[in-house]
Predict the structure of DUF3102 domain-containing protein.
Amino acid sequence: MGRRLKHVRDKDLAKGQFKSWAKDNCDFDSSTASRMIQAVEQFGDATSHLSTGKIFEMLSLPESVDRADFVRSRTPSHRPAKRKRSTR
């Protein structure tokens, strides 16, 4: 999604029109659209398997945090299994 939004912003619209275009054409606000573009610019396709929330969380990380380590430590396959509660 971010790649498509970036294309529209950079190739199809005049400077300054993106916010208005996003408001009229997206099911989310223009700041979310801008964050999706920012994610593509920072991470490329490396985050295509992650949720939008996780990608936005990565955008707010300090530069000192390795993004690849962050993703590995936060994906379900690397989390400890949750213990099932007894139903007694």
